[in-house]
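Note to self: keep these together.
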Amino acid sequence: MSTSFEQLLSHLSECEMKKVAVAVAQDGPVLEAVKIAKERGIAEPILVGDKKKIEEIAAELSIDLTGIEIVDIEDEQEATLAAVSLVHDHKADMYMKGKIDTKSFLKSVLNKEVGLRTGRQLSHVALFEVPGIDQLLFLTDVAFNTYPTLEEKAGIIHNAVEVAHACGIANPKIAPLAAVEVVNPKMPETVEAAELTRLNEIGEITGCIIDGPLSLDLAIDAEAAKHKGAEGRKIVGDADILLFPDIHSGNLVYKTLTHTTKAKNGCILCGTAVPVILTSRSDSTEVKVNSIALAAVVANAMSK
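Structure:
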């Protein structure tokens, strides 16, 4: 079981290096990230976009593109479809957003002819290595689903469990979060959390342990669980996956960890035929590299 990104990367050294197709690759931070990923043996990039601009940006940043494949397509929409087609046709194992708006990028993911649809729920999984917390934390969904229904939450859990399994966590503990740790009919989040727990207990949601509703302190702080007399619960400060009731709560926690701690993180979009790397333009190079690494780990597990 990996407890840090470095441990996660060490597993990749034992695997065949995966290929990542980058849509509209003429973006400095993305070029830096894929170059580092290649040098560290994480992934082999295929850059799809305006070759002249890609080479100009690389020269400005002193990035050596020797040995990296570039597919020269100036038009952004055509480049995006060409990049996703590489993945669809099994010529690449992961799909990454470059200098293209998120709406257009997701449109290519969902393209009926060359996209990466599976019929499953799409969801975003963020993996965090947080100082002071022993295990890696998976946060979902903090960027894609706004107000997920109970059925959608079950799909989100399924995706997060697959990612956790790929990272070596055989039976991840999932905390459906709420403001309180008891069911309150006036708080729908607590009712749905209890129902997800029940579905897990009767075997309709498998591969994990679900215990909810849980407040955030009980989910990640064993001392808080002890003080609140929660020792009898299935999760006592040792949750692996934090399931948020809506995008607002998830996004606020994500950005708090990102901007106020020295936490490391990486993110992918799941429920697709292959892992999709959908980072923000404000994300650091380290976050982009970590996201490629997480996608590579999941892609390796999917290939088996």
